């Protein structure tokens, strides 16, 4: 029993993702109609430049006036794939005000203003879906929000940025340095001309904020996420990692504290054992581990970006939002009832791999060990290598708080016998 | 804004899964209420034996009259975790008739009677959810039905039975034979006293039928699924697999034909390359690959069974069904509009690994090769090993239809120089 009046969709943005959304809406129109229970019609496409040829898109639908499009009043669903904060935020808000539901792929905006956008959606009784904003095609938001709705999630740990994983994978497999691997990623189209958002961890931090909020039913702002990029990771770090049976990944880690009352969210490079499933995530792929009380350990793996994978996620949301609309209902909105404290990085507890350049003379190890002990950081293993009066000391710690570790490092730097702290890397996934 | 009248849940079955469902409903009552928007109340628990002590469950709620419980008329959701065909089927049907929605973990029943149960749910405007029926805690039904609703799934390939994966993993890592590995699985509680449903592939076949139906939007009956157990897999097969850089897994494979008009579903042991992510799925874990047009390759991994993981999936469904109920709506029902043909096993195209015992004399290889050629099965590699007039021939084919391969094997058996066909194993995941 098919309703005949089509649902009208306004597409904001027709770039890498938007053009694929439009293509699939056209080529799979019959399937979409059957799955939704009504046909969906592309009612307008907002872009910045009119001149560009847009294959498969009726030029009559194309406009540069996105505002007028969302305010038309007959739009059922607005798909926002422009990206960035403005004008996306204003357009989405206007969409709700004019009665439309919204599907977005915009992690930056959701991480920064998710709460306000959810409030606007709720106020107008509309849906805001954004599966595509985290890890592209990989279903993550829906599993966290719905499949695990009866469970208690304690940890989300994953590779959520394909560009940096491509670079780190290259460094790992070829021994290349950061710059060389980045150049290759750029040449192959895996890194943008300005790779800052990826390599400095901003993109992953936005995703971590979104994931932590949904996983823990609390609000996690972008500023709450500790962020460290991967531009300082060296070929030497990879050699150290290999000696430990590890590799290095840029991880997004969201954790609930043991007592359950607070959470942390962070993005940084970390060593993980080669035996960990995340260690074998190659190239630009993404993978996310979710650990919960009842389900135990789940992993979700797939392409984390790209026009067509991201469009797959957008269209899944589009179908859901359209169905809700036909049923006169909305899906689960923001769930932030738990209202947990977001603790600062200092309270994060993990293990560390520290390389020190030290003087090669008796008593140095004892001095260094004393500093660790004074700061309550317990040492797991130490490896000492020396030649010609110079030596290096590699210390791997047991679990300790980030604050204790920082204190330790600060004190180490003040020792006469410590020439320098060559690297500090967290060790995860054990 | 919390509604105060609680939603009433009837629990049918309080065994491995049911007792965990009851436990979590009690211990996580506040979280469930917050996520649903109303409290949920355990209104009754139906079991077979009254005598048994059921920890944490109010004895006043326990009944052996499941029929009376589902017919009470005030039940909002029936959770069926009894298992088997009857009385589960009659109880679920009665639940719909008396106005309840249903959450079930019953793969056997869903695979056999899914269509009729969906019809009953639809007729009464109620929900039928069953995430727990396939791969325990791993979100699979919801991602296929909702996240990928805007995509075209072409293939589902996975390990969906933990018992058999445990046994095969043991055989692989220790060189043990089937019986020895089964005995260990039984001793450790991974295999039931009567392991038939698992080792003969019945359990996996039920899951394949459910997955294929949802993935391809068509009806796939249990009888449509080709099924071969893993009781014939030998230590020698594992040695052959290793020589090929492979291991052996019991796989459920659902595929759409190239032209898109038909599908196949099958369960059988197969060799897969060690480099394939499914090869490293250890112990009783499950993992499922989903390949679609736009999303590409996704993988879902986690515990495929166990009381608490399965309860996690049941509770996720319970939350969804309760929300729908509060919203006066239902989730997506059965989607079988595509109405595709299910092709028989003969039309499945894959690669094969065949071990033959042959006479060690000149011309045998030429004879064997001729038989393959006559049946249109192209050979990839042949390895010949001989001593004392006896020899073995290992043939790995290119892709060929199952019918052609069967014809080839039949003809090979008739050759005087072929003493026996030692093993035939499909090769997947390449
Ligand atoms: N690309 C991916 O792999 C990926 C993956 C996950 C999520 N996302 C997210 O998806 C969103 C879109 O990404 P994308 O890669 O498709 O970006 P893109 O290729 O740069 O496309 C952006 C589109 O928005 C249009 N646009 C820009 N400013 C506009 C304005 N003021 N008014 C109307 N239209 C405007 C552009 O118009 P013109 O065509 O005229 O330039 C273009 O069509 C972003 O939020 C991104 O984070 C992308
Ligand atoms: N166990 C798993 O890991 C797992 C994983 C995925 C899916 N599942 C599915 O979940 C379902 C339940 O499995 P399970 O392992 O929990 O089974 P189970 O431990 O054998 O429990 C079955 C429960 O049903 C009750 N029962 C049996 N016949 C009944 C009847 N006629 N009327 C009322 N109650 C009756 C039993 O009562 P008594 O307690 O009095 O014996 C028992 O409480 C099955 O469909 C199974 O396929 C199980």
From TrEMBL, chains A, B:
Superkingdom of this protein's organism: Bacteria
Q: Which PROSITE patterns match?
A: ACT, HOMOSER_DHGENASE
Question: Which PANTHER family does the entry mention?
Answer: HOMOSERINE DEHYDROGENASE
Describe the function of this protein: Catalyzes the conversion of L-aspartate-beta-semialdehyde (L-Asa) to L-homoserine (L-Hse), the third step in the biosynthesis of threonine and methionine from aspartate.
Q: Which family does it belong to?
A: Belongs to the homoserine dehydrogenase family.
Q: What is the species listed in this Swiss-Prot or TrEMBL entry? A: Streptomyces musisoli
Enzyme Commission identifier(s): 1.1.1.3
Instruction: Name the InterPro entries for this protein.
Output: ACT-like_dom_sf, ACT_dom, Asp/hSer_DH_NAD-bd, HDH, HDH_cat, HDH_CS, NAD(P)-bd_dom_sf
| Signal sequence, renumbered to the chain | none
* Name of the featured protein: Homoserine dehydrogenase
Q: In which pathway does it act?
A: Amino-acid biosynthesis; L-methionine biosynthesis via de novo pathway; L-homoserine from L-aspartate: step 3/3; Amino-acid biosynthesis; L-threonine biosynthesis; L-threonine from L-aspartate: step 3/5
What cofactor is this protein dependent on? a metal cation
Q: Which UniProt keywords apply?
A: Amino-acid biosynthesis, Methionine biosynthesis, NADP, Oxidoreductase, Sodium, Threonine biosynthesis
Indicate yes or no for the key word 4Fe-4S: no
Domain ACT: where? Answer: 353-426
Q: Which reaction does it catalyse?
A: L-homoserine + NAD(+) = L-aspartate 4-semialdehyde + NADH + H(+); L-homoserine + NADP(+) = L-aspartate 4-semialdehyde + NADPH + H(+)
């Amino acid at each position: 029993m098919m309703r005949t009046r089509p649902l009208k969709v306004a597409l904001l943005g027709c770039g890498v993702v938007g053009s694929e959304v439009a293509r699939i809406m056209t080529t799979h129109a019959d399937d979409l109609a059957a799955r939704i229970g009504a046909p969906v019609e592309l009612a307008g496409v907002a872009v910045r430049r009119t001149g560009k040829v847009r294959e498969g898109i009726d030029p009559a639908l194309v406009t540069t006036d996105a505002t007028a499009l969302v305010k038309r009043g007959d739009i059922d669903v607005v798909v926002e794939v422009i990206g960035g904060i403005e004008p996306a935020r204003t357009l989405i808000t206007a969409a709700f005000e004019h009665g439309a539901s919204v599907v977005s792929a915009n992690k930056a905006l959701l991480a920064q203003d998710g709460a306000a956008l959810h409030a606007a959606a709720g106020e107008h009784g509309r849906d805001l879906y954004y599966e595509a904003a985290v890890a592209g095609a990989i279903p993550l938001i829906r599993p966290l929000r719905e499949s695990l709705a009866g469970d208690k999630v304690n940890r989300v740990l994953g590779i959520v940025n394909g560009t940096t994983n491509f670079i780190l994978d290259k460094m790992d497999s070829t021994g290349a340095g950061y710059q060389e691997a980045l150049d290759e990623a750029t040449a192959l189209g895996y890194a943008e001309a300005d790779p800052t958002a990826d390599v400095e961890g901003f993109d992953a931090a936005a995703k971590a904020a979104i994931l932590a909020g949904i996983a823990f039913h609390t609000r996690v702002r972008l500023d709450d996420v500790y962020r460290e990029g991967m531009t300082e990771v060296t070929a030497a770090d990879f050699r150290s990692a290999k000696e430990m049976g590890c590799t290095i990944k840029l991880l997004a880690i969201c954790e609930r504290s043991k007592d359950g009352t607070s959470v942390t969210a962070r993005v940084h490079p970390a060593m993980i054992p080669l035996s960990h499933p995340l260690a074998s995530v190659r190239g630009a792929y993404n993978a996310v581990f979710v650990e919960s009380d009842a389900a135990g350990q789940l992993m979700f793996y797939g392409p984390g970006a790209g026009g067509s994978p991201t469009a797959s996620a957008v269209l899944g949301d589009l179908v859901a939002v359209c169905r809700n609309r036909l049923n006169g209902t909305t899906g689960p909105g923001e769930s932030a009832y738990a209202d947990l404290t977001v603790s600062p990085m200092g309270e994060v507890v993990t293990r560390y791999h520290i390389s020190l350049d030290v003087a090669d003379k008796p008593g140095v190890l004892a001095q260094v060990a004393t500093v660790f002990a004074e700061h309550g950081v317990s040492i797991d293993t130490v490896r000492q290598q020396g030649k010609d009066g110079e030596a290096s000391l590699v210390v791997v710690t047991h679990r300790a708080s980030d604050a204790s570790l920082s204190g330790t490092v600060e004190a180490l730097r003040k020792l006469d016998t410590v020439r320098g702290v060559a690297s500090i890397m967290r060790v995860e996934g054990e």
